[in-house]
Amino acid sequence: MNGPPRQNPAYRPSPLEPGGQVSRSRLLWSILLFLYAGAIFVLSSLPMTGEKPLVPILHGDKLVHGLEFFVFFFLCWKVLPRHRILCSLILTGVYAGSDEFHQLFVSTRSANLFDWLADLAGGVAGALLIYLLVYLPLPKESRLRILFRSEPDKEA
C-alpha cells in the first residue's frame, strides 16, 4: 500500500505514540525491570567486605552473577514486544557490561571479564529455557500454564 501507515491494515501504533496503548501487565513488568536494574546498580555500588562469601563453594560468586542476570533476562523478555529472546539477550549483555564497568569506580571492587561472562551465561541459560518452553512440542495449554501468560481456554 502506498498510503500513510495508518491506512495499512497491518499497521500497529507504537505504545509511545499518542493512541498507542501499553498493557497493564507490560507496564508492571517494566516497573519490575527498572527496580531490579536499580537494585543491581545499588548492590554493585556497595564496597566488598572481607567476610565469608555469599555462596561457600568454589566460584560461588559466578553462580550468583549467573542467577542475577538470569532474572534480569527474564524480566527483559517479559517487557519487550518483538524479537524478545535476541533483544533480551543483548540488553542483558550490555547491562552486565555496564555493571562491571561501574564497579571500576567503586572502592574494593573491580571489573572482571569472568564476572561478565558469568552474567552473560545467566542470560543465555534464561534464553535457552525460554526457547525450550516456547518451542518445545508441548500442548498449548501446558506451555501457557508454564509461562504464566494465561490460563488455558476451557472449552465446554
**Based on helices, strands and strand pairing, what is the structural class?**
mainly alpha
Largest pleated sheet: none
Report how far apart the termini are: 42 Å
Q: Any low-confidence stretches, pLDDT <50, length ≥5?
A: none
Order of helices and strands: HHHHH
What's the overall geometry? globular
> What's the helix count?
5
Overall mean pLDDT score? 80
What's the total number of strands? 0
Radius of gyration: 20 Å
> Beta fraction of the residues?
under 5%
Helicity level:
55-70%
What does this structure look like?
The protein has 156 residues and is mostly helical. The chain has a domain of 82 residues. Helices cover 59% and strands 0% of the residues. The chain contains 5 helices and no strands. Helix 1 packs antiparallel against helix 2 and helix 3 runs antiparallel to helix 4. It is globular. The N and C termini lie far apart (42 Å). The mean pLDDT is 80.
Offer a concise description of the structure:
The protein is mainly α.
Summarize the topology:
Elements: H1 24-45, H2 60-79, H3 84-102, H4 113-135, H5 140-147
Helix pairs in contact: 1-2, 2-3, 2-4, 3-4
For this entry, give a set of tags.
mainly alpha; 59% helix; 156 residues; globular
